[in-house]
Amino acid sequence: MDNQSKNLILATALSFAVILIWFLLFPPEQATQAPTPPATTESTQGDTAGTATGTASATLAAPEAKPRDAALAQSQRVTIETPRVGGSLSLTGGRIDDIRLLSYHVTVDPGSPTVTLFTPPGAAEAYYALYGWSPGGDLAASAVPGADTTWTLEKGDKLTPSTPVTLRWDNGQGLIFRQTLSIDENYMFTVTQSVENQTGAEVRLAPYGIIARHGIPPDLKNFYILHEGVVGRVDGELQQLKYKALKDLPVDANEGGALAEAFEVKRDGWIGFTDHYWMSTLAPKPGQPFTAVAKYTPATDIFQTDVRLPTMTVPAGGTAQAETWLFAGAKVWSILRQYQDQKQIEGFVDAIDWGLFFFLTKPIFRVLHWMHQILGNMGLAIIGLTFIIKLILFPLAYKSFVSMSRMKALQPEMEKIKERTGDDRVKMQQEVMALYKKEKVNPAAGCLPVLVQIPIFFSLYKVIFVTIELRHAPFFG
């Protein structure tokens, strides 16, 4: 076996060793443990007295699963119709529980069904968003809308980018609740919750939003380079929890016996669930403090993320309202970046799993995206990107090639040293090192450039695997 072959084997072994050591020293980042607050919301606007309760039981436990169409037919519905999103919302609970992504199909066949994101309770794999109010002070739980509340359609007949809808519920005790929902041309809902107080006395309530998922998704990839589960951002820090990690959280008695982790968000943040290509997240307005909660309830097998806003004091004759965003759609980089820039949802593009080498995967994707815009085909863009990377790495590859060539040129001298020293290994090593020094050859120079290239090409593979822009993308011709 010549030295060139040995160097290749050594480079391969060192490459695997570097990757192994990297993951041992720098394991994938997990969400840090934060103090777990109770299910009540005690922070208020200018006043800390009073307690709001009720969010822990706001979701619905699914009985025996029905066909999806049958579950949809169980309640009155308002149609959702946009260029990218189709479906409906339920007047029962005011749930957004029927979302289909019209731009994406289940398989490469354009005649296959479009991707289903949200599914109503009662059907298998239920997945939906729900909004409500937690009662505070002496206010009874029955005085606020819940998961079974039947809302009336007060304004609008179809939810489109140009026509919002308003839902109304009168509790018969002097409180009138409204939900105004609008949607843009992509995947962002704006939900404005309001309460009108006609009781003759001040009341205290706390608005919340919930995304609930019944059971672990059946199409979970469980691949080591891909995060699936809870994703969020808390005051500048990315938080990630896999479904298994949720099940391993400690039991919180204040969350109705659920396993929960809470994050007190003071400045900015969002939280929700991410799949390989799809995502649903709740995001309050920037600068709005809130409590973000990720939880799992074993009794009902429901995974849940909550956004709980501070308790509001509504004076007699007054009105209070809260506005939050719900993203429910595909993790398209350009769309996420648009929301990040225009709505100032900080770090929203980080919902895409860029991984540990984010400092490489992000610029690699930017170049790939740029080339796709120029060439109009993702296959050609990948080929072009590969040429660009190889061009950038050419000096390293050339240095490696030159080093290997010089090592190969020294083979006759190496053989003479072996014959001269015989079995004296120490003397042989000394003469070999002296030869390297004399000829100014570094035996490691052929391996180090290869090691530098490994993270770059791993990052290229990561980008190709996780980004939706390459999903079902055709090759040229």
Give keywords.
477 residues, alpha+beta, 9-stranded antiparallel β-sheet, 7-stranded antiparallel β-sheet, elongated, disordered N terminus
User: Which whole number gives the mean pLDDT?
Assistant: 85
Radius of gyration in whole Å, from Cα? 29 Å
Sheet with the most strands, sense and barrel status: 9 strands, antiparallel
* Amino-to-carboxy terminus distance: 44 Å
Approximate helicity band: 25-40%
- Structural shape: elongated
Side by side, the strands of the main sheet go: 6-8-9-10-21-17-16-12-13
Number of continuous helical runs: 10
Question: What low-confidence regions span 5 or more consecutive residues with pLDDT below 50?
Answer: 1-5, 22-57
Q: How many DSSP E strands?
A: 21
Q: Strand pairing plus helix content: what structural class?
A: alpha+beta
Relative strand content: 25-35%
Mind explaining what this structure looks like?
The protein is α+β, with helices and mostly antiparallel strands and 477 residues long. It is 29% helix and 30% strand. It contains ten helices and 21 strands. The strands form three sheets. Strands 6-8-9-10-21-17-16-12-13 form a nine-stranded antiparallel beta sheet. Strands 5, 11, 14, 15, 18, 19 and 20 form a seven-stranded antiparallel beta sheet that branches. A five-stranded mixed beta sheet has the order 4-3-2-1-7, with no helix packed on it. The longest helix has 23 residues. The radius of gyration is 29 Å and the shape is elongated. The chain starts with a helix and ends in an 11-residue tail after the last helix.
